Amino acid sequence: MSTVYDLTREQLAERLAAWGEPRFRAAQVWSQLWKRAATYEEMSDISPALRERLAAELPLGTEVLDERAADRGATRKALLRLGGAHLIEAVLMGYRDRVTVCVSSQAGCAMGCTFCATGQMGLRNNLTAGEIAAQVVWARREAALLPATTPRRLGNVVFMGMGEPLANERHVFAALARLTDPRAFAIGGRRITVSTVGIVPGIARLAVAHPQVGLAVSFHAASDELRDRLVPPNIRYPLADLEEAVAGWRVATRRRPSIEWALIDHVNDTDEQAELLAPIARRLGAHVNLIPLNPTPGYAVTGSPPARIRRFVSVLERAGVNVTVRDTRGRNIDAACGQLALSAVEGERVGSRP
Ligand code: SAH
Ligand code: SF4
User: What is the DSSP string of 63-128?
Assistant: First the structure.
């Protein structure tokens, strides 16, 4: 089994034509699938018999196995089985002014960042383009269930779930194409951010293939000696090469990149690291997002205490760097950055649905 979201419009039309359906039917089903994010049961303009056949032969392939809520229902983490096989987690986050979904590009991850729960589980599978896009479609549907303190409308997509997007480049780029296609999901590329550990050749290709899409780069260290230990891909793509690639991306897209930095107590939250980071961020015109490390089972170190975070921020700000301390949404249901690992978790369970 796979997912209907892997089919092109033409492929869907061919299938329906082979079933003897009139031509307009494919357009109808396509628009329900992509624009309305409807399940087959919700497609009231399609006959029950056809809906049944679609569900059996061209399944949505988005099964919600478990779902947890936190932050008064404004954060929802779902365990999804995609395409009948691949288990991943996706997180929907409702804020006062926007709704963002954090999607996965792989089941697990091979990059081996020591502090990351997904890295600790290793790589199980790449996701297909349809499986990646299907998470965003799920989020459009799911946004209606968010509390009234949020817009209840999906606005933004971040590739900060499980996996390294640029290690599954072909499928991620194809998913971006489908999501931004005005005839399919029709979300603006500017509302999407791809987060990467720093796969240098992939960054250059992203700028060419999807110049509208935003880029976040997970630095976490500003010296090769420390970054080699925290983020193993740095051995292959050291900081100088990474900076050059991000600078190239910025010139090509004329957009401001983000630098992600998980603050780890006594590891990368020192004045020395802040002072090494500042000139890099300035040269790249980058916005720095700091996030206190989220706890994960396989890493015994904790996040930085508030006083350290303030100090790190002030070193950057004094050097003229733009910096934000991000909140840790859904931390108590293991839904925050770096915590996704298919774990059984505490928290208010909001049930499992087909
Ligand atoms: N593989 C990509 C995207 C998924 S990880 C990447 O690494 O960028 C999404 C973000 O969560 C990255 O910035 C990553 O470094 C960060 N992260 C991983 N583990 C974390 C943890 N335990 N606490 C806080 N952030 C973490
Ligand atoms: Fe993979 Fe990103 Fe986790 Fe590193 S931080 S192991 S690249 S998911």
Answer: EEEEEEEETTTTEEEEEEEETTTEEEEEEEEE-SS-EEEE--SEEE-SS--TT-HHHHH-EEEEPP
pLDDT band at 339 (very low <50, low <70, confident <90, very high): confident
Q: How far separated are the first and last CA of the chain, in Å rounded?
A: 16
What mean pLDDT do residues 130-154 have?
A: 97
**199 CB near ligand 2 (under 6 Å):** no
Residue in 127, 337, 339 to alter for ligand 1 test, most ligand atoms within 8 A of Cβ: 337
CA angle 52, 55, 60 (to 5 degrees): 155
- What the block records as the tokens of 194 is 């791809």
Q: Is 164 in the pocket of ligand 1 (CB under 6 A)?
A: yes
145-173 pLDDT, tens per residue? 999 999 999 999 999 999 999 999 999 99
Where in the sequence numbering do the catalytic residues fall? 89, 337
Calculate the CA 89 to chain-centre distance: 10
Q: Look at residues 338, 354, 353, 336 and name the one whose alpha carbon lies nearest to residue 77.
A: 336
Q: CB-based contacts of 8: which residues, under 8 Å, 6+ apart? A: none
Answer whether residue 345 shows pLDDT above 60.
Answer: no
Mutation probe of ligand 2 site: the residue of 116, 124, 196 with most atoms within 8 A of C-beta: 116
- Measured in angstroms, how far is the CA atom of residue 48 from the centroid of ligand 1? 44
The rounded distance, in Å, linking the Cα atoms of 86 and 131 is 9
Helix (H) or strand (E) holding 251: helix 239-253
Residues 345 and 78: their CA atoms lie apart, in Å, by 12
Q: What are phi and psi of 260, to 5 degrees?
A: -95, 140
What number does the ligand 1 atom closest to the CA of 296 have?
22
Decide if 251 contacts 289 (C-beta within 8 A): no
How far apart are the CA of 121 and the centre of ligand 2, in A? 10
Query: Can you tell me which atom of ligand 1 is nearest the CA of 292?
Result: 24
Distance 220 CA to ligand 1 centre (A): 9
**If you count them, how many residues does the chain have?**
354
